[in-house]
Amino acid sequence: MPINQAAPPQAHEILKRNPDAIYLDVRTEPEFAQGHPAGAINVPVVFIKGPGHMELNGEFVAVVAKTLAREKQLVVGCLAGGRSQRACELLEAAGYADLTNVRGGFGGARDAAGQVVVVGWREAGLPVSTEAGDNSYQALRRKAGL
Question: Does the reported pTM lie above 0.70?
């Protein structure tokens, strides 16, 4: 089954229509702290180990699986849509079925020339927060018992 795709305005509509749906932000903790969709939870799919070097978060699926039911509708976003697509693929393999990848993510998707091809969540004027609290990665890891 193909993973659903939605631009940020459509992702926002999904979340408004289904109050039980969760925006899963898979960016790094520092990226999440600088601003994220209001109400989002943070579980990084990768850790940035240096310029151009990303390492898969080995606990990604475990943290999600121990904190979110597989029946939950998940709207998954990152900065531009690449990491979130990978996260959706990992979650689909783990038994999650109601997945939507946010094309354009938080910061927008760009073409090879650097032109914005999909406006991001922030630029679309959608609700943004810098509050993490119980939605932070470290809080979710504790909740998952890791």
Answer: yes
